[in-house]
Task: structure prediction
Amino acid sequence: MTLRDRFHNLAETLHPQWVALRRHLHAHPELSFEEHETMAFVANTLTEWGIEHTTGVTGTGIVAHVQGQEPDSRLVALRADMDALPIQEANEVPYASKRPGIMHACGHDVHTTSLLGAMQLLQETRTEWKGTIRCIFQPGEERIPGGAKGMVAAGVLQNPIPGHILGQHVYPQLPAGHVGVRPGAYMAAADELHLTVHGKGGHAALPHLCRDAVLAASAIVVAAQQLVARRSKPTEPVVCSFGFVEALGATNVLPNEVHLKGTFRSLDPTVRADLHEALTTLIQDTASAHGCRAELEIRHGYPSVRNDEGLAHSFREVAEAYLGKERVHSLDIRMTGEDFSYFSNEIPGCFYRLGTASPEEGNPLGTKGLHTPLFDVDENALKTGAGLMAFAAVHTTRKQ
Result:
């Protein structure tokens, strides 16, 4: 029996265990950098399986190793994130979040379970493959500065350095049993914009006696879109969006100040730096033109995710061998962000997508969007999530 067949058969047998693991994690979510119970749960599971691991890395992270034959011959890293989001779950399921206002709405419970499952498969078959697999369970993917940055600083990619790293993310746009990958530029750098426009408040019917911060803020929002449209190439994806505007005036009151929060997304580091500078100048000049003053803080978020070309092509071939060509898809660029970039900026990396929707026509399970109160998955995805990750850990190479 081939290792591929072994993984497929074991995935079928172990799947009920993985469902139980995922449902426990889903019911007990923890916010970024607060994953203490999650860390303990993962560590206890690894201990039960006899897998070497270290806890408390940067607070709540875990690093574990599974060794095959000739453990010094090859080292590959796998990564999963563990944190949840500040969202009130609306799903009426037995495993719904037991913690008000906190939910695994981005699938990190699936990521953690998939990596655990991959480790279990690798441990069960350790006499059938060569090398060592380093498994990284990281905290805080959802919040700047990102748990991956701290894990890298803590040396999880050192002593020795892995040849490459793989990571996966749930994807409700594909059915369970399918995956997607893209070589090269894939996900955006994600920066936060925190802006206060200071004016002079007063009676809204006497605007000439005021300095209208609302009007200045409105002009800034429009001008920022025009800047992005005219200062970046049409072929270079850039996004600037303001999702928070607070102007605590009234129908007949102009406020003294307006607060705005937004996001700036880009793929190219040079474009990112140039537009940060241009955006800062634009905001200050626009506010000044309206007799107001602007305070802008740009909080640098995660770098863009760029999949190593050779490794991504290798992963695709391995995925096709494990799942079949019809179940492996090419992905478009996404302007969402991911701190996996901190890992892939250090060593060659490939970040791919795991389908989580029900393959049954008309079945809505797993189709709700990420970061929504109704997000859930078809748990058959765990078979692919764990099985393919284990198979890819053993077989992927970085092609030249």
